């Protein structure tokens, strides 16, 4: 005779299975933060209990990890500055301290300057007009990309030094 306590059989939960299948399909496109995955599951109509259990299982399987997600996001968004990255990560439900820590660890001010410089040079090549209005547009583009005021000022000063021999028009 089989002891019933030893062979506790759990009935499969078809709703949980559907939620897991959906979550795995979503994660197949790109990594998600816990907040993003919760929103996806809720929008799909899964109950709070099924959503919570699915998130717990994804975390247990190490398929959902906000720390790893943050590292990946910062590493892959190289054309953007720290201000924009922090904003994007906050929108995705990442704690501000974790976002700050990750950005500080993975990126330096020199990295940000090099990226902003590369973007500025590209914009300068694409825009033959070299006047103060072009500098203002460049500054606005770098701001939208999330670079700090200090980085933008350094880039503009560096461009200004290089362009002095060519002469800027007012």
Written overview of the protein:
By secondary structure, this protein is mostly helical. The protein folds into 3 domains: 13-64, Arc Repressor Mutant, subunit A (Orthogonal Bundle), CATH 1.10.10; 65-107, Arc Repressor Mutant, subunit A, CATH 1.10.10; 109-163, Arc Repressor Mutant, subunit A, CATH 1.10.10. 69% of the residues lie in helices and 0% in strands. It has 9 helices and no strands. Helix 4 (66-76) packs across helix 6 (96-106), helix 5 (82-91) packs antiparallel against helix 6 (96-106) and helix 7 packs across helix 9. The longest helix is centred in the C-terminal third of the chain and has 18 residues, at 109-126. The protein is elongated, with a radius of gyration of 24 Å. The termini are far apart. The model has no long low-confidence stretch (mean pLDDT 88).
In short:
The protein is mostly helical and 170 residues long.
User: Would you count the extended β strands for me?
Assistant: 0
Largest sheet: none
CATH topology value of the largest domain = Arc Repressor Mutant, subunit A
CATH architecture descriptor text of the largest domain: Orthogonal Bundle
Strand content: under 5%
What is the level 1 CATH name of the largest domain?
Answer: Mainly Alpha
Low-confidence region ranges: none
Q: Quick one: overall form?
A: elongated
- Separation, N- and C-terminal Cα atoms: 95 Å
Radius of gyration: 24 Å
Structural class: mainly alpha
Mean pLDDT: 88
Any idea how many domains? 3
State the helicity in percent bands: 55-70%
What's the number of helices? 9
Task: Give, in order, the helices and strands.
Answer: HHHHHHHHH
């Amino acid at each position: 005779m089989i002891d019933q306590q030893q062979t506790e059989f759990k009935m499969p939960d078809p709703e949980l299975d559907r939620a897991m299948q959906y979550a795995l399909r979503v994660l197949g496109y790109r990594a998600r933060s816990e907040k993003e995955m919760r929103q996806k599951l809720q929008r799909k109509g899964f109950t709070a209990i099924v959503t919570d259990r699915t998130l717990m299982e994804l975390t247990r399987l190490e398929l959902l990890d906000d720390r790893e997600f943050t590292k990946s996001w910062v590493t892959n968004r190289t054309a953007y500055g720290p201000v924009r990255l922090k904003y994007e990560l906050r929108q995705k439900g990442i704690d501000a301290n974790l976002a700050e820590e990750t950005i500080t660890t993975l990126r330096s001010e020199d990295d940000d300057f090099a990226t902003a410089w590369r973007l500025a040079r590209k914009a300068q090549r694409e825009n033959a007009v070299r006047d103060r209005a072009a500098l203002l547009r460049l500054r606005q583009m770098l701001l939208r990309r999330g670079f700090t005021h200090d980085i933008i000022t350094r880039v503009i000063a560096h461009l200004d030094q290089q362009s002095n021999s060519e002469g800027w028009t007012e």
